[in-house]
Specification:
Layout (H helix, E strand, L loop, with lengths): L1 E2 L13 E5 L6 E3 L3 E4 L4 H6 L11 E4 L4 E2 L3 E2 L8 E3 L1 E7 L15 E8 L2 E2 H10 L4 H4 L5 E2 L4 E2 H4 L6 E6 L2 E7 L7 H8 L10 E3 L7 E2 L5 E6 L3 E7 L1
């Protein structure tokens, strides 16, 4: 969802501000950047062919305007193997650099749920060639998301089922307590690599069970205590 802006000061019409809705509010959360944590659940790391005990945390980015909230996911071109990855979103209300671990949660505004949609075939080709993942991860509409809920309402969840059904059949089931790198660690580590800003979103990683979807599928998922989403593949 893009919020409109005043276009009079620009030589071309700029895009609107990417935003996420907020539960029980008519206000919007402006998105600055989206950081995604790679292989943050041990079983998912293993199913992708990696040893979770030997890897430090790593991150990739999606573009803010990759976010969609309208309930339909358009199957992308140039791929025949598009996968779902169900995740909890962490929305930052404060930024900073080198944020101490014991201060990290003070920077969290709220939480939501999202899908890290992945053109797995294109990502696999990039990996083989040692190239960046953008073509597999940062394509249009690759971040279907729910509305956000403030931490002031739900606290800071550190456990709760992470789940995804496709056409009513369970495909992913995990728990937030299975994350290798917890939310404070993600924030503290990231802030040593980037200057985090208000409006940054962290996609916190996905449990095992990722797989392909086809046009006509209905993806329903959520994180218990945080939120749910429903997206049809079109």
């Amino acid at each position: 969802m893009n919020a409109p802006i005043d276009t009079s000061a620009y030589v071309i019409t700029p895009p609107g501000i990417p935003t996420l809705p907020i539960v029980d509010s008519d206000k919007l959360f402006p998105i600055h950047r989206i950081y995604c944590v790679g292989r943050n659940y041990a079983e998912h790391a293993i199913e992708m062919g990696h040893d979770p005990d030997k890897e430090p945390p790593f991150f990739f980015q999606k573009n803010p305007d990759n976010v969609i909230t309208n309930g339909t996911f358009p199957y992308p071109d140039k791929s025949s193997d598009v996968h779902f990855e169900m995740e909890m979103l962490v929305a930052l209300g404060k930024g900073g650099v080198n944020i101490p671990l014991d201060k990290a949660m003070e920077h969290v505004w709220g939480y939501g749920v999202g899908l890290d949609m992945t053109r797995r075939d294109l990502q696999g080709e990039a990996k083989k060639l040692g190239r960046p993942w953008e073509v597999g991860k940062s394509f249009e509409a690759s971040a279907p998301c729910s509305a956000l809920v403030p931490a002031s309402k739900i606290g800071h969840p550190d456990h709760g089922k992470v789940w995804l059904n496709v056409n009513g059949k369970p495909r992913q089931v995990g728990d937030l307590n299975q994350m290798i790198w917890k939310v404070p660690e993600m924030i503290s580590y990231l802030s040593g690599l980037f200057e985090l800003q208000p409006g940054d979103i962290i996609m916190s990683g996905t449990p095992a069970g990722v797989g392909a979807i086809v046009r006509g599928d209905l993806m329903e998922g959520g994180v218990d205590g945080v939120g749910t989403l429903n997206f049809k593949v079109v």
